[in-house]
Each structure stands twice: as structure tokens, then as C-alpha cells.
User: What shape does this take?
Amino acid sequence: MDLLFDGPEAAQGRIVLAHGAGAPMDDPFLTAIAAGLGARGVRVVRFEFPYMAARRSGARKPPDRTPVLLAAWREAIAACGGARDLVLGGKSLGGRMASMLADEVGARGLVCLGYPFHPPGKPERLRTAHLESLRTPALIVQGTRDPFGTPAEVADYALSPAIRLHWIEDGDHSLAPRKASGRTRRDAQAEAIACVAEFVAAL
Assistant: This one.
């Protein structure tokens, strides 16, 4: 398994991030988040699920099934020396998979960047059952325009008290605001980075 690293090797806070369904671990979004957290003294490790690693060789593979994704997560955790001192997380799919095993592996914390509460346009297909009893301290950073879960929708979910939500004003699924909002993508990413860094430091 190939890993990417950002931030000081001897950092107190360490976070492992997995990518979303359609973009690799070195896509601009995760790269910006990892660099920003690294600059704040957080050690960041990124990895790829098997289907995405295969795409680098030209294979057009769809996302792996959940058991394969979770197995990849366990491999990444083992490569980092175990979950006890790790914050697990990621973008969309990557964060969702992390949330499914955070309690099981005894992670220090959980960070989800754009959680896919439901498929766009299908609010009845919730992916929140396991979040109702989550014990791991968690932070979900979500855009207010995210079609995978808006503030009005999420307000009605029975989420665990261990979960803290931070809303990025006018952000989409990648937290990016519209130009008309007066904010830039960089502004939104900086807000997310600051929020995640503070969360990790407080664990």
C-alpha cells in the first residue's frame, strides 16, 4: 500500500485520510487539506483504496465493495502502528468507511469531510444508522449546499452526541462556495483546516 505523508513526523496529532469515490488521494482537495493540516503541525497520512490504485494503471474500475474498502482501511491503520493514537477520516466515501470502523478499532477520533448522508436526490436512503450509536469523538465538516445532506435534513437525524457538525457556509460536497457568496474555495478550505486542526489538538 502506497502512502503519502504531510506534516512533522513527530507530531502529537496524527490523522489518516481516505479519498472520495471519484478522486485519488492526491487530488487537489485532499492535497490542500493535508498540506494545511501539516502546516499546523498535524501529521497526515493518505492512502488509496484498491480500485483507485488500479485506475493508475489504466483500469476502469468502480469503487470496491464495502468489505474490501474496510479491509484497506485496516491495512492503512496497521501500517501506521494501530488506531489508538490515530484520527481516522476522509472525503465522502473515505470518511464514511472510516466512520464504520472507528469504534471497532478504537480510534482516537473521526473526521468526515463532506459526509454522504444519502445519495443526491434520494433522502430516504440514509447512511446514518451506525452514526446513531457512534462512541468515537467525531467531527463532520459539511457544506450548507451539499446535496448529500443539507442542514435542514441533518437536523432531523438522530446522530450520536459524540458527533460535532461544522457547517461551511454555501459550500458544496467539496466545501466550495459559489462566487456570488463572496467567499473562495481557498477560504472554505482554510476554515475546514482550522476546524479539523483544533479538533485533533483537543483530543
